[in-house]
């Protein structure tokens, strides 16, 4: 499948797909006309790459993790990267806790502000 089709099906722009290829995250064959030709399996791999990037992993670590991937949502431990993955998970857990705390504070502030504000029909 050509790069435009991969882009359309994954929502990842062509420039980023070429970057993934330069980083060794995905591969393609070259057609006689020089166009990139990707296997169907690249779609799942791109989904995995995007998820790992969203988790904050750098491409150099993703390059090591991708060969250990068993499916779009499950990763087997990879030799030499388990500590880095655990560290990243700890960081994400802390960020999630921080966001939950901020969310609670925001809800509390909204509630208090609504309680202290006059009803809309009594405002000047």
UniProtKB/TrEMBL annotation:
Residues annotated as transmembrane: none
Pfam families reported for this sequence: MerR_1 (PF13411)
Family annotation (Gene3D superfamilies): 1.10.1660.10
Lineage: Bacteria, Bacillati, Actinomycetota, Actinomycetes, Streptosporangiales
InterPro entries per UniProt: DNA-bd_dom_put_sf, MerR-type_HTH_dom, MerR_fam
Keywords: DNA-binding
HTH merR-type domain residues: 1-68
Source organism (scientific name): Actinomadura fibrosa
Protein name, UniProt field: MerR family transcriptional regulator
Signal peptide location: none
